[in-house]
Amino acid sequence: MVPLLLGTAVLALPKRGQRHRQLGYAYVGGLAVMLTTSFAIYRQYNGFGIFHVAAILSAATLLAGMLPVWRKRLVYNWLQLHYSFMYLSVLELYVALVDEVLVRP
Question: Transmembrane residues, as ranges (predicted)?
Fold first, then answer.
């Protein structure tokens, strides 16, 4: 739930600046922890399942959103890529939230 709140705050608040960076890195760290711990869940599918695939895709989206920031000089349109992938990353969290609400009894 923390990455969802942090991601929403990062998207809603003004971009650039110290606060954006702090909240953004807190979001990245929180989501990284959440994605890492998601691989410890095996009971629902008795092994690797669709939610693990979603976690891998989410990690790829997060990495795609952060790489342009870390490699600004090497990426021509780094800001557009960063915005696009980070918005998608937060959107994926909302989709996962809706999925959890609808799937879990």
Answer: 24-42, 49-70, 82-103
